[in-house]
Amino acid sequence: MRYLFVHQNFPGQYQHLLQDILARKEGNEVVFISEPNGNHISGVRRVNYRMPPSRSRNVHRTVDEIEVMQIRAEEVARVASNVKALGFVPDVIIGHHGWGELLNIEDVFPGVPVIGYFEFYYHTHGVDVGFDPEFPIEPGLLARVRAKNTTNLLALNNPGMGQSPTVWQRSTYPAWAQKQIRLVPDGVHLDICKPAPEIFERDFEFGDWRVAPGQKLLTFVSRDLEPYRGFHVLMRALPKLLRERPDLHVAMVGGDKVSYGAPPTRGSWREIYSNEVRDRIDPSRVHFLGRIAYDDYVRLLQRSDAHVYLTYPFVASWSLREALAMGCALVASDTPPVTEFVTHGKNGLLTPCLDPAKLADAVLELLENNSLSEKLRAGAVAYAKIHLPMAKHLKAFRALVAEAVG
Length: 406
Hints:
Number of helices: 15
Strand order of the largest sheet: 3-2-1-4-5-6-7
């Protein structure tokens, strides 16, 4: 079978699916269209496209993203035409609708079934926009939020099937659209993301700092340290946490860019909130690790005594699923993308997303109550074994492909 994947950041959500397709040894061929990067999967033929400069300097601010998406669609169609001219016609096309790359693909391969990833439908109220009163949105920007759904709406009106990884993400779409979007939950490799209780029995060294057996480690992971993922809330909880627990170290994984929401007017969010609390914390016990290797990330969460995961009502991170699989003692925000995974008192503690004091209290409760910690760890692993096996995700995706191809 011939597969064509499209995602601007190879391999995107599709690493495990690609490996499964190639490992099945059924004579499958895989071509992947993306922008250039250094990632590589043996057996996948990559075809790169490069984004040209914007064609207009005077685009209205509500449609500047739409122009970029249309350029992507045009570039993907161009390189797909080259692939077709070389004799490759796929049996199925799989990709992410978020960047517009699939909008023109049916013109190149008419009649070829398309399975598109529908990640999130934007709303002007009731979801992420306006959720945090610390960052009110200007009324003039609401039109821009609505316009962000242009690609979603075009994709929903193109031929093909849709898929989404969570019930809540699918629920952000209009009722008529949800009928076109299948639920295919993401999975975790449970043989990699698993508890390692022996790690608590020896010194844990990470770079130039270490945590001794019996000392406590609080962990936090986000692609970038920013308000959408509750970074500001955790920073404001640190003074109480570090004061109450002199044995506590805090390790934060994440970059200084902005993945979601607006950038700060100056510097980085890490600098802004570090400066806000710098006179009330011991910086030698707060470790900003930046972006780290995956093996180090796994090792860090396996050693965690309490793991904080916060998010606005937005797309849940892969790290939430992986933290559950590794049996982290979890303190998480009481927001819809999280409560789909975490039940308070069973496999984690839920706390109001924007309340630093309640976050600190929940973390301290975990650190001081070993029986509660062990109960939540066991609950997290049990949940992961039932709901998150990678084999379950791959089986569901294979069924979706089989249905699409007919």
